[in-house]
From TrEMBL:
Cited SUPFAM superfamilies: Lipocalins (SSF50814)
Gene giving rise to this polypeptide: 107361068
Pfam families: Lipocalin_2
Family of this protein: Belongs to the calycin superfamily. Lipocalin family.
The organism of origin for this protein: Tetranychus urticae
Keyword Oxidoreductase annotated: no
UniProt entry keywords in alphabetical sequence: Signal
Signal sequence annotation: 1-16
UniProt entry tagged with the keyword Signal: yes
A biological-process GO annotation: lipid metabolic process
Name the record gives this protein: Lipocalin/cytosolic fatty-acid binding domain-containing protein
Domain Lipocalin/cytosolic fatty-acid binding: start-end pairs: 35-169
GO cellular component: cytoplasm
Length: 183
């Protein structure tokens, strides 16, 4: 299998299928005690918004690692509909030390940055997060993900996190296809 680097990205990025009118929501006071060091490492995608960048991609995972400059490398991996491995490298930065769960993701130079915030996580089992891109002054795109440290996650917990994301405006999450995954 060959590897393909996508310009657009997988988890935590970027444009949802249906842009909305208005401004990106700002994060509430969820998880202001967020500890990025506990969030590092590998996560499996359980559910996601229907973003064009992840169309047909299965077996998606994200790996977060801390760089010496304090930024975070985000490596998103998956398998596309042709069976090729796809990998996307992103850099995330904490914008405000008082809100460490709120990250800014550089997609590519000159493009609008995606904001990315962790709504709820216990670091060891699950995470739910939202990403928003302000596409124009009055148009934004909101996406959400549910991640897990293991390839599957308790159904009741997934339901709870799905409902939580719905209260933040993220609806119609798709379930990650993990049939035949080797990761
Ligand atoms: C995650 O990334 C780090 C740093 O690049 C690497 O050492 C580690 O092996 C990766 N973990 C997985 C599960 O890919
Ligand atoms: C972060 O990504 C850069 C560029 O891909 C790489 O050179 C560096 O080793 C990575 N650092 C960590 C801690 O993963």
């Amino acid at each position: 299998m060959k590897s393909i680097i996508l310009i657009s990205a997988l988890i935590g990025c970027c444009f949802a299928a249906t842009p909305k009118i208005g401004k990106c929501p700002t994060p509430g006071d969820e998880k202001t005690d967020f500890e990025v060091s506990r969030y590092l490492g590998r996560w499996y995608e359980i559910k996601r918004s229907d973003t064009p960048s992840e169309k047909g991609v299965k077996c998606s995972t994200a790996n977060y690692s801390l760089r010496s400059d304090g930024k975070i490398n985000v490596t998103n991996s998956g398998v596309n509909s042709e069976g090729d491995n796809v990998v996307v490298y992103l850099t995330a930065s904490i914008v405000n030390p008082d809100q460490p769960n709120f990250l800014s993701v550089e997609i590519f130079p000159g493009a609008p940055t995606a904001s990315y915030w962790v709504i709820k996580t216990d670091y060891e089992t699950y995470s739910s997060l939202i990403s928003c891109v302000q596409i124009t002054a009055d148009m934004y795109s909101l996406s959400g993900w549910i991640l897990s440290r293991t390839p599957t996650l308790d159904v009741a917990l997934v339901d709870e996190l799905t409902k939580l994301l719905e209260t933040k405006g993220v609806t119609e999450l798709l379930t990650n296809d993990r049939t035949g995954c080797t990761n």
